[in-house]
Each structure stands twice: as structure tokens, then as C-alpha cells.
Amino acid sequence: MNNQDLLKIAEEFGSPVYVYDSEKIISQYNRLKNAFNQVKHLKINYAVKALSNISILRLFKQLDAGLDTVSIQEVKLGLEAGVDPSKIIYTPNGVSLEEIEAVAKLGVQINIDNLSILEQFGSKHPEIPVCIRINPHVMAGGNTNISVGHIDSKFGISIHQIPHLLRIVENTGMNINGIHMHTGSDILDIEVFLYASEILFETAKNFKELEFIDFGSGFKVPYKEGDIETNIEELGEKLSARFKEFCKEYGKELTLAFEPGKFLVSEAGKFLVRVNVIKQTTSTVFAQVDSGFNHLIRPMLYGSRHEIHNISHPEGKERFYSVVGYICETDTFATNRRISEIKEGDILAFDNAGAYCFSMASNYNSRFRPPEVLWHNNKAHLIRERETFQDLLKGQIPADLSDIENKVDE
């Protein structure tokens, strides 16, 4: 997918528009799979929350991947995409017992991360296999909002509560078939990940009927040229060896599971916008585009970096620009960024727009959410239409306010 392909997509479908390259998704999936090819039983569950378009889920089904879901709606999307329930794991946080029970009826793997729900669910449904999410109290991740394995995190059951956990399992007679952890996103230090894994292995020894151990994900992808990333190959070599060793100690061949999202789809995505205005102030040159944090919130929410390229004039002289949106408050995508000279009407392409971009988009300022396009077999496929004004009104019910006029007169 080159610049000319992207420009044609912008011309055909308008801007702003999200574009995903299926070839890149497939290559990332194969890279992770190959890194752990020494493991006899490997399961890769794509984290649906990263990008939940049903065409993307169908792509992962074709790759024989499973799905990691966090809501009953994501579970139903996976089923709608044709994914077998046995290949879906449901890992919610803070949801009601009623939702968990409803999901259990759909036949997917349940993953519980708090003692209260574990005891309630186990008491009522001891026959349903359950995975337990452990909080290893290991700080990992590129931002406090996405570091979820530390001691103050709302996620998982503390390793210090293992005795209480074991009492619940014994009292209910429930079947624990998996152990899970997720330390955070944008993990760089493999040794920290391996340290957390040792905690998980030690915890796993308390359960005699395990089928799998889920190590979460959070692998970092590069956000700019020369950027550091998780060394998947090194992690694969070291963790595979340790996992095989543990299986021998455990006396059973277990499945090693992961739940990557960003690693699989981030680099496959491009976000295309059109420049509305070049605005020169006393200190800054703004490139104001036809989008905002209503479509791509990560730079404002996490301070995340997305490389931005002027694909209309890629060979132009580089100048410094602050790229900003059209939302009616501070709405900055990039500050003082070197980009090929921009003119009004140019198309800019944002890199790493495949994960947590469209899935976090909104209708703030009553703007329409953009379309999504899948670039597959050298052809652009529209996989979500641009919203219309009728989409904004959908679900709204005009109230009867006929009495207001009389009250105003009074």
C-alpha cells in the first residue's frame, strides 16, 4: 500500500478515512506465531478492543486466531464474524454477575478478575470452567493509563490474596482451567515480563487441572523510524524455553496463550485527513485538518506519537508544523513536527492508526465518524460507511415540550 494507493482511497471515499493493510496484519500474526514455534500448543487471541470491525475479526478467523473480548458486545461481534465460541475468551473488569452469566451461556471461556464475582459465580456454576486473572504487582507499560499490573491497579486478583482465592475454589468446587495476567501496554523490558511470568508459574502450581496459561500481551510497536520495540524473537526464545520447562514440572502439556491487539493491527493502519487551513501565527504554523480528537484521541489522551506524512507532496522541503484538528477546544495531533511543506488541500497520512483509534472515536461536536477501508489483495474494500446526519439522530426521541411556552408566559 503506497502513497498513490492512499491518495486514490482518499479521493474515492473522502476524508477523513481509516485504512487498514491486511498484508501487514497477517505478517505480524505470523511473526508472533513463528517467535513461539518451539511451543507445542500456542494460542493467539486477538484483542478485539483494539479494532473491532467485523471484517477484521473475520480476517483473524481466517488466520485461525482466537479472540480476547472484554464485553458481551465484543463476544457477540466475534460470534457474528463466525468465530467458534471455544476460541473466544472473555476478560471483563467490574461488570455485573448477570453479564458474566449471559456470556457463559454463549459457550466462551470465562476469565474472572475479582474475588467477589469468583465466589458468586463459582457457587452458582461450579461446573463451568473458569480462568483467573492474577495481578502480579509488576509495573509495566508506556503510560500510567495502560499499566495494569501494578499494586494500585483495578485489574486482577492480587497475588497476596491467593490463600483467599484458594479457599473460594475449594469451597465452591469450581473448575479452574486457566491462569492469566496482563501487566500493561508498550512493554520494552523483556526481563520484567519474564519476572512477571515467574510469578504466574508459581501461582499456577496451586491448580492441578489447568489447560492453559495466558500471559496477556502489551508488546510495543515502533512509532517512528528507529524507534525501540519489544524484541518478540528474544522473548519467544526465552519464554518458550521456560514454559516448556514448567510443563515438565507440572506434568502436563499446557497451552501458552497471548492476547495481542496493538502488536497485530497498529502498524497496519493509516488515518488520512485533508488540510483545510494553513494558519500562520507569530510563533507557529498550524496545519488545520478536517478531523480532531473525536476521530483520533490517543495523542491528547495518552500523549501518543503518530508519525505524519504529507503524501500529496512527499518530496517537498521540510518545514515545522503543528498539526491540529477542528474540535472546539485544544485539539493537537503534533507540535512543531518536521513535515514536507504542506498546502491547503493536501492529504496527510497518520501512521500507527490501526489500534485504539477508530475504536475510541466519537461524535463529539456532532461530527460524523469516518469510514473504514480494508486494503486487501491490492484493492480497497469499504468495510464501514461514513456516518450521516440520520446516524446522529438514531435512537434519539424528541420530548414533548409543548407546555414550555405557557410556563414562559407565566
List keywords for this structure.
single chain, 410 residues, alpha/beta, TIM Barrel, Lyase, Ornithine Decarboxylase, Chain A, domain 1, 2 domains, nine-stranded mixed β-sheet, eight-stranded parallel barrel, 18 strands, 23% strand, globular
Describe this structure in words.
The protein is an alpha/beta fold and 410 residues long. It folds into two domains: 22-265, TIM Barrel (Alpha-Beta Barrel), CATH 3.20.20; 266-393, Lyase, Ornithine Decarboxylase, Chain A, domain 1, CATH 2.40.37.10. Helices cover 31% and strands 23% of the residues. The protein is built from 13 helices and 18 strands. The chain has helices at residues 3-13, 22-35, 54-62, 72-80, 97-104, 115-124, 162-172, 190-204, 232-250, 262-265, 298-302, 389-393, 404-409; strands at residues 17-21, 42-47, 66-69, 88-90, 109-112, 130-135, 157-158, 176-180, 212-214, 255-258, 269-280, 285-289, 308-310, 318-324, 332-340, 347-350, 372-376, 379-384. The strands form two sheets. Strands 1, 11, 12, 13, 14, 15, 16, 17 and 18 form a nine-stranded mixed β-sheet that branches. It has an eight-stranded parallel barrel with strand order 2-3-4-5-6-8-9-10, surrounded by five helices. It is globular and about 65 Å long. The protein starts with a helix and ends with a helix. 41% of the residues are buried. Mean pLDDT is 92; it is low at 140-150.
